[in-house]
Design brief:
The protein has 458 residues and is α/β, with parallel strands linked by helices. It has 20 helices and 12 strands. Helix 9 (191-201) packs across helix 16. The two termini are 24 Å apart. It holds the Pfam family DUF234.
Length: 458
């Protein structure tokens, strides 16, 4: 099966392999949450190489992991090496020194998948790798790739206090695909339908590949999310459990955010706990993003939101009723959560519109120094998409996940909100709308208006 996307990741890995094959050992670290495609990417990369691919398992002792690793060496390497591999290794240092020896004359790729599981979720495995790399790896033709789905642990390994700090030649975090790149997984879907699929599945390859082009959005959701054991229903807890200890109140904080709490005080109030550590951990692990009003005239207080579209969908639409769905009441839950689904769709569409505005800058449709974000002030005025060149607005945009056409009344409303911004500079101000319905005839006489549909986002 051909790999979709990930061209930058593959190019970086291939360059590292070329250096390793030339006698310059390479250490690579690839991390990202489950279902993101790490294993598929690295299996594809290893396919035509002398390679050993080992996946650590949960709740195994070190002794068992080391015995399994020795077995993987015997199974995956050529016959003249198999007889050299012992039944097991006493330590991971001994195992790593052994594979370094196997790469003295021929290039060898070793992938240790889910490495944080090798030490029960602690980061000290990195110290072992660092010690071996420092003292026993010199001119071997070795490429060692360490991967993990426990994002916080992996970033601790790479951080200032971590054993792999500035050791790896390749450090690559893999995130869900953005909307435009994810399109490759479902190229036959109508643009509007693909936005709906993406809103539910996020940029996860497995989720998107399970979406059936022959079914309607509602039928796909019924099968994947509102049926007992459905992929979208059961996957979020598995993804989160790899990285988060639920005793820290992470689920309560994410649930509060999914329910509409965006400011720190409101999140704490709904979660009924202190959230400073919890919120910081979620942010560092990539589950939550901090959003600030663009420019100097907006609100000084940041907002917080779930950064992953699939997880946001699960928390907003599925989480509270998961037991009812598992009990066979999925169709009723799907009907009663339709409003929450539409609100989630609108937020995903809005985020995609800001990404699209950034691509307009890259394409030269806006001044090259334009930065794109959102703007709000005192919870009374909010602008979905704002482009600033210096301190001056060049683009003010609104997102509408609505089927009806846009009218001059919509333009007037956007202009009234734009009046709260600084005066435009020398560049004419563009008013932009992203919607499903497009403009009606009344907007035809307004050259300052640009309109975009889901097809433009893709």
């Amino acid at each position: 099966m051909a790999i979709v996307g990930r061209t930058a990741e593959l190019a970086e890995l291939n360059a590292a392999w070329a250096r390793a094959a030339g006698g310059h050992p390479e250490l690579a670290v690839v991390w990202g949450r489950r279902r993101i495609g790490k294993t598929f990417l690295l299996s594809h990369f290893a396919g035509d190489k002398r390679a050993v691919y080992f996946t650590a398992t949960r709740q195994d002792t070190d002794d068992r992991q080391l015995r399994r690793f020795a077995g993987a060496l015997r199974e995956q390497l050529e016959e003249d090496v198999r007889d050299l591999v012992p039944e097991t290794f006493p330590t991971w240092e001994a195992a790593l020194r052994f594979v370094a020896g196997l790469a003295r004359t021929e290039p060898l790729l070793v992938v240790l998948d889910e490495a944080p599981r090798l030490t029960g979720g602690r980061a000290d495995f990195a110290d072992t790798v660092s010690a071996v790399w420092e003292n026993h790896v010199r001119n071997q033709r070795l490429m060692l790739v360490i991967t993990g789905s426990a994002v916080a642990v992996m970033e601790q390994m790479l951080g200032p206090q971590g054993g792999l700090h500035r050791r790896a030649g390749v450090e690559r975090r893999m995130d869900p695909f953005p909307l435009a790149e994810a399109r490759a997984f479902q190229p036959s879907l109508a643009p509007e339908t693909f936005v709906e699929a993406y809103a539910a599945c996020g940029g996860y390859p497995l989720h998107l590949s399970r979406w059936s082009p022959g079914l309607s959005t509602n039928d796909n959701l019924r099968e994947l999310a509102f049926t007992p054991g459905g992929l979208l229903l059961r996957d979020a807890p598995d993804i989160l459990s790899e990285d988060l200890d639920w005793r820290g109140g992470y689920e309560r904080v994410l649930t509060a955010m999914a329910g509409g709490a965006r400011r720190r005080s409101r999140i704490a109030g709904r979660a009924q706990q202190r959230i400073d550590y919890t919120l910081d951990r979620l942010r560092r692990a990539g589950y939550v993003r901090t959003v600030r009003s663009l420019g100097s005239t907006g609100s000084p207080d940041p907002l917080y939101e779930i950064a992953d579209h699939y997880l946001a969908y699960w928390f907003r639409v599925l989480r509270d009723d998961a037991d009812l769905i598992e009990g066979g009441q999925g169709p009723a839950v799907q009907r009663r959560t339709a409003g929450r689904w539409q609100s989630h769709l609108a937020q995903v569409f809005e985020a995609a519109a800001r990404d699209h505005a950034g691509r307009l800058v890259a394409a030269g449709d806006l001044p090259p120094d334009t930065v794109v974000g959102r703007w709000w002030k005192d919870e009374t005025v909010e602008i979905d998409v704002l482009g600033l060149a210096g301190d001056h607005p060049v683009l003010v945009g609104e997102c509408r996940w609505q089927a009806g056409p846009l009218t001059v009344r919509d333009l007037g409303d956007l202009q009234r909100r734009a009046a709260h911004l600084p005066e435009p500079g020398g560049t004419a101000l563009t008013y932009a709308f992203w919607s499903r319905g497009g403009p009606d005839a009344s907007l035809g006489g307004h050259p300052e208006v640009r309109t975009f549909t889901p097809a433009d986002l893709l």
